[in-house]
Structures are given as C-alpha cells and as structure tokens.
Amino acid sequence: MLDTFCRAGGIARIAALALLASLLVAAEVRAQDDLDALAEELVRLRGDVESLNTELNSAQEQHRARMNSLAAQKGDLEATRRREDLRIRQLEEDLADNRARAEQAGIAGEALVPVAERAIADLRRHIEGGFPFKVDDRLAALDEIANQLASGALAPPRVINRLWSFYEDELRLTRENALYAQIIPLDGDRVLADVAKIGTVAMYFETRDGRFGQAVRSGEAWRFVELENRSDVQQVQALFDSLNKQIRAGYFVLPNGSIRPAANRGERAE
After folding, report:
1. Which burial class, exposed, middle or buried, applies to 115 when counting CB atoms under 10 A from its CB (0-12, 13-18, 19+)?
2. SS3 111
3. pLDDT at position 117, please?
4. Are 184 and 205 contacting, i.e. CB atoms less than 8 angstroms apart?
5. 177 pLDDT tier (thresholds 50, 70, 90)
6. What's the rounded Cα separation, in Å, for the pair 53 and 94?
7. How many Cβ atoms from other residues are within 10 Å of residue 24's Cβ?
8. How far apart are CA 18 and CA 22, in angstroms?
9. 134: confidence class by pLDDT, cuts 50, 70, 90
10. Pairing between strand 202-207 and 212-218?
C-alpha cells in the first residue's frame, strides 16, 4: 500500500511538473508573440517617422525655395521702386525746368489758353476721323481736359502737360498690339465685342455670340463688317488665340481690310 502511495505521489509530481512546463511554454509563446507584435509596431512607427521626416524635409525645401523667391522678388521690387523714384525726380526736375523756361519766354498762364484750345480741337478732329478704337472713351477724356481748361479747374500749364500725355497715349496706340473690349456699331446695333488692335493699321472683332469681323475703311470713314468667308474667320480666330496667349509679335495671315471678305494678304504684327 505504501508502495502504491509513493507511486501515486510520483505521478502527481510528474503531472505538476508537466503542467508547470506547459505553463512556462505558453508564457514563453505569449511573450514571443508580444515581442513580435512590438517589433512589427516598431517597424511601422519607424516607417511613419521616416515618411514624416521625408515630408518635413520636402516642406522645408519648398519653404526655403519660396523664401528665396520672395527675397528675389523683393529685391526686384526695391530696384524697380528706386528706378521709378529716380524717374519721378527727373520728371519733376524737367517739369520745373520747362515751367521756368516757359515763364521766362513769356508764354505762361493765360497765353497758353489758345494754344491748348487749338491742340484740343486738333486732337478731336484726329479722333473723330481716325482709327475707330474706343472713340467715345478717347473723346470723353479729351472733353474732360477741355472742361478743366474752360472752368479754370486746372492752370493752363497743367492742361498743356495733360495734353502732352494725351498725345503720347495716341502715339502709343500706333505701336501696340493687344486685346480690348469695346462697344462697336454692327448691323445697326451697338454690340459689346472683344477687339484685336494691330497698331492703328487694322482691327478685328469677336462678338460675345461668336461672330468675327473687322474694321473696314471706306473713304474717310470706318465701319465694322462681319466676316463671312470661313478661311477669314479662322485667320482672325487664330489671331485672337495668339493674343490671348500673350503672343503679340509674329507673322499672321489676316483679311486685308477690303470690303471683299475673301481677299487676304499676310500681315506682320509687331
């Protein structure tokens, strides 16, 4: 019986040891799983850190590039401002010198009024009988100067200065190729259109409903005529596309301004 008890006790110890070993193995497996999970999390976090570091470096590079660009722009603007300040001072000096010489020559003040009136009349005839570009706006600006002269709102020397600027604007029209919007007379109506002005040589238009045409000179008068020839329309459309893309110089084949819409010639816009 004692022998049986001893054997039973040995079996119990063996079972206990087996259970303990099983528990230790399970604990080791769980620990290994936890370590694997931690390793995977560490790898993921490290990847996130590297990704964020890459984004940070990229953002820093973009920021530096932006700051460098702004610094360059600031430098350019400062240089431009200094040049403009110098130009303004030079103009002011020239103006003061011209006024002094005008006074010395005895043509200041009221003596300039008839000079200004003749200049206004000449400009009015030039605009009314000339190139049909924003005629109403140009006449309105001239009327404003005339009213200031008549009312005494501006002294005659200053009116002369404004007229000189007006002359310069008129001369600039002869060199400029650009797009504008203006009201044009077309088929008895006044229509808002985009106009392509080639100096004061030619003008083409596109209405808001997609019609194309040109300004045609007939004797001393100008009128706006819609183009019917498909080739002419395509040529004018190509001109508008180029000007919209800021391409203001080049060789363009355009309708030549005669009343016959089918007749074309090549014109260079410069």
Report:
1. middle
2. helix
3. 92
4. yes
5. confident
6. 60
7. 10
8. 6
9. very high
10. antiparallel
Residue 176 near residue 197 (C-beta atoms within 8 A): yes
- For residues 34 and 166, the model is more confident at 166
Check whether 56 has a pLDDT greater than 60.
yes
The pair of three-digit structure tokens given for residue 59, joined into one six-digit string? 């953002």
d(CA 227, CA 135): 22
Calculated CA dihedral for residues 107, 111, 115, 116, nearest 10 degrees: 110
- Residue of 232, 188, 192 whose CA lies nearest to 214: 232
* H/E segment holding residue 216: strand 212-218
Q: What's the mean pLDDT in 57-77?
A: 80
In whole angstroms, give the CA distance from residue 156 to residue 110.
7
- The pair of three-digit structure tokens given for residue 155, joined into one six-digit string: 């002294």
Q: How far apart are CA 206 and CA 215, in angstroms?
A: 11
Contact present, 195 and 203 (Cβ < 8 Å): yes
Q: In one letter, which amino acid is 98?
A: N
- Rounded to two decimals, the pTM is 0.53
* Amino acid letter, residue 164: W
Residue 153 has pLDDT above 60, yes or no: yes
Q: How far apart are CA 80 and CA 86, in angstroms?
A: 10
Output the six-digit token pair for 137: 């706006």
Write the pLDDT tens digit of every residue in 227-236.
Answer: 988 998 998 8
Q: What residue spans of the chain are helical by DSSP H?
A: 2-104, 113-128, 135-151, 156-173, 230-244
Contact by Cβ (8 Å): 159, 116: yes
Nearest in space to 177 (alpha carbons), one of 260, 267, 258, 113: 267
